[in-house]
Amino acid sequence: MKPTNASDDEKLRTLLRATRPVVTLPPRFQENVWRRIENAESHKGPLAAYWFDALATWILRPRLALTFATVLLVAGFGFGWNHGQENERQEAQDRYLAAVAPNILH
Amino acid sequence: MNRSLVIVLLALVVGATVFGSAYVLSHRVRTMQCQGPTDDLAWLRQEFRLSDAELKKVRVLHKGYLPKCAEMCARIAAKKKELEQVLAGQTNVSATAEQKLSELDVLRAQCQTEMLRHFVEVSQAMPPEQGRRYLAEMQRVTLGKHDQIEKSMSDSAGHAHGHD
User: Fold this and answer.
1) Interchain CB contact of A89 with B (< 8 Å)
2) Cys-Cys with B42: which of A6, A25, A51, B37 at CB 3.0–4.6 Å?
3) HSE-up of B56 (CA within 13 Å, CB side)?
């Protein structure tokens, strides 16, 4: 092994220190970590209950509820309209068939 | 948990009600808008996107075909009546009944031939692609019914033989 002297070691240490990133933690980092741990602890219980609570909280958001109601309204209207059109088409086809291919054939 | 469950269930009920109401309302509005077609050829015009000129040609063919169709129907109805009279009160199939059945079959075949000829003529009065689609659809709905009956009969016959 190659022998090293003390001045080289010191230079290396200084260089290594300089390359280490200096991380500044966000404000109230520790407090937030503890809060998240407490929240996780408080949700320990039946998994279904946790999901129902989460779903209920989600549903009760006014903007989301309004969006869902609008989507259901538009979808219901679209399906109803489409079904009405399909009935009308079927009625027209039956009328034509009754004229050109009466039931006496069948 | 209970409160959340109630909220979720209530949301489902409200959602289903909103969807259902919108569906029924729009269906009714659409049905009220169109009080049923009054023209026999309304379906052809809509389904095969016929122009006025094409529809006019089809209408001429349609009007020409209707009396022939009515005449064939009357002849078939008369023959059926004759067959019913021959069969009335009999416990076996007589030679006369057999003959009437054959005559009825011949009349039905003639009627179907006339009908198919008419469909071909109508299809030729349409743009080629629409004509092909019309012909295929008419064959499906008129001859397809016989195929279904025959298939169900052969299926049930095969099933019965399986038990012999």
Assistant:
1) yes
2) B37
3) 3
